[in-house]
Amino acid sequence: MKFLQENVKKQALAILKNDYEITDADLVFSLPGERKFGDLSTNLAFVLAKKIKIKPLLLANAMAGKLQNRLAEIESIQVAGGGFINFFLRRDPFLHYQWQNRMRPMPAKPEKIVVEHTSINPNKAAHIGHLRNSCLGDILARCCRFLGHEVEVQNYIDDTGIQIADVVWGLLYYQKKDLAAIKEISDLASYLWNLYAEVNQAFATDEKLAAARREVHKKIEEKINPEYEACLYIAQQVLLDHIRTMARLDIQYDLLARESDVIGLDFFKAAAAELTSRRVMTLSQDPEKQGCLVIRYEQENIEKIIVRSNQTITYVGKDIAYNLWKFGLLPRDFHYRPFFTYPDNHPIYMTAGEPGTPTSRFGQAGKVFNVIDVRQSYLQNLIAQVLLQLGHVEQSRNFIHFSYEMVAMTPGCVREMGLNLTPEEENKPYVEVSGRKGRAVKADDLIDQLIAKSRLEIKSRNPGLSPDEAEPIARAIAVAALRYFMVKFNLNSVIAFDFKEALNFEGDSGPYLQYTLVRLNSILKKAAAAGLGALNEPGCLARLEKAERELYWEIILNLSLLQPQVEYALANHELSSLAAYAYGLCQKFNHYYHLFPVLAEKDPLVKDLRLTLISLFKNKMEKLLQIMGISVPDKM
RNA sequence: GCACCCGUAGCUCAAAGGAUAGAGCAGCUGACUUCUAAUCAGCAGGCUGCAGGUUCGAGUCCUGCCGGGUGCGCCA
Question: Which chain A residues in 549-588 sit with Cβ < 7 A of strand B?
Fold first, then answer.
C-alpha cells in the first residue's frame, strides 16, 4: 500500500507540477473512512486554494480533469465534499500484487535499537503497573523487529537502592531472620510483597526506624555482611521471579543491566570528565546545595543534583552514564555472564563487574527507547538535554522516552480486594497503585485469575477436551486478554484498573481476535481436506455480487495497511492504534464470515476468491498478532 | 507557585485538523439442524466540561475559565 501511494503521488506530482506550484509536502493521501469517498483521498485543492485564491471545488475539478486516466494504478477519480479529490484503485491488479507479495520478508534495517523496559525494583513481586510497562515494551520491541531492526531488550536492575534495603532490614532486624532462614522462604517475591508494605508502614510511624534503614543501606553499599549477602540473594531471587512472571506472557529480555555494575565499573567517572569539561555539570552556587555537582534543567530552570555533597552519585547521574553507554558513547564497557536460558534456548546475559564470558557487543544503539511511566519525564528530558549539550545531536534525537500514564485502581476495586482507603481516597476517581502500600493487584494473581476463567470457558464449550489439551489453550487466551487490555488504551490515558474489564473475553478483547482466526483456520483445514489446499492466482472480483465485492475489497484494502500501521504506531508512540487496527479488521472479517459461506459455495470461482481472502487475512493477521504477542490456539 | 497530562453515550474507551463523532460493556429485539454463537444483525443512548478565537473545515490547534490527575527530593 505504501509503495503504491508513493507511486501514485510521484505520477500525480509530475503531471500537476506543469500547471500548479505544488511541493512534495502539499500532496498528502489518506484513507477515507468510507469507500464511497475512494480508496485514496487528498485535500490538495484546499491547501492550494489558499495560496492562489481560487475556490477549492473549482481547483479540485480542474486537477481531477488533468489526472483522469493518466495514473497507472487508478481506475477513476472523483471530486466530493467541496474539494476532496478521491481516487479509486484498479482492484484486480491490486489484489494480485497483495497476493504475490504476501510472503516477501521485510528487508533488514541497519539501525540497532535498544529497548529498556520492565526495570522493576527487585524487592517484591511484580504488579499490574509493571505489566503495562512490560507489555508495552515487549510490543514496542516486536514492532521494531517486524520492521527489520536488530533489537536488544534491556532490563535495568536497581540492586543497590534504598527499596531493597527496606526489605533487607525487614528480614534481618524486624523479623530477625538469619540468612539461612531467609533462604528457606518459598515464593520470596510474594513474601516480600507483604513485608515491604508492612515495613513501610512502620517507617512512616517511627522516625528511629528510618535511621536504621539508612544504616542497612550504607552497609550494603560498603559490602558488609550479612546485609550485603542478604541483598544479593534477595535481588537475584526476586529478579528470577520477575523473569518467570513475564515469561508467562512471552516477554523476554536480552540483557540485565545491574546498577551495582554501573557503580562498580565507575561508569559515572567516565561520563563526569566530559560533563565537567563542557561545563554541563558545575559546582552548585546554592548555599543549600553546598559541595554538590549539579546540572541545570533548562525547561524548568531547576538545578538537579548529580553528585551529592558526600560525593555519592544520584540516580540521575547513574542513568546519564548508563544511557551514554547504550549509545556506545562511554569509553567503557560492562563485563558479561550468561544468567538464564529460556525453554526456547534464548539466553539472557547479565552485566558483571569482573571479566566473564566474552560475548557479542551489547549496547552500540542507533536508537534508544526507554519505556518508563510519565512520572519520570523530567529526568528523561534531562538526559536528552545532556546528550545535546555534550554535542551528541543525533543521539539526543534518537533518545526516546516511551512515556505512558500510570495504572491506577478505582476505590471500588481497592475495596473489592479488602484493602483500606482513607476517607479522602474514597472520594477520588482512582488511586495510584503502590507496592509500598501493598495496594495493587499482583501480576501473577491476575494471570492466574485469567487462566482460571479461560479454563471454565473452554470446558463449557469443549466438554470433551482433556485438562492436558485445555491448559495451553487456557494460557494462550489469558495472555491474549491481558496483553490486549494493556495495549488497547492510549498511552496518555490513566488505566483505572477494573477486574471486569480486564477479564472480558468478548467484543473489544484479545480472545475476540483469536476466535476470528480459529474459525478461519478451521475453514482452511476443511478446505485442505477437501483437496482445495493449493491456491492459484486470485480471480477477478467481477465474479462476486456487488454486496460481497464491496466488503471483500474493504477487507483487502485494509489488510494492505499492515506495515504502514506498524510504522505509524512506532513513529507516534501509539501502540493502541495496532489494537484498534486488528480489532477493526476482525470485525469486518466476522461480518463477511456470517454473510458468505466458503465451503458450501457452488460457484468454484467464487469459492476460490473467498479462500484467497481468508488466506490473505490469515497471513496478515498472524503477523499482526505476533507483534502484539498473541498466539492462536487450535480451537477455542 | 511552576511544568506536563486528562475531561467525548449510563460505564470503559476510539476518532492520525477532513466528509454523517464511532466501538465494547450494561439494557432491549432477533439469528445456532449451517465453515465454532468467545460470533453476527438490529434498537436505544451525544450541547465532545464552559466561553471565545484561528481555519474552506475544530472533539482535535490557540487563549481564558471550571473540574480531575501527575511531577518539581543531597529517594530510586
Answer: 564-565, 568, 572, 574, 576-577, 580-581, 583, 586-587
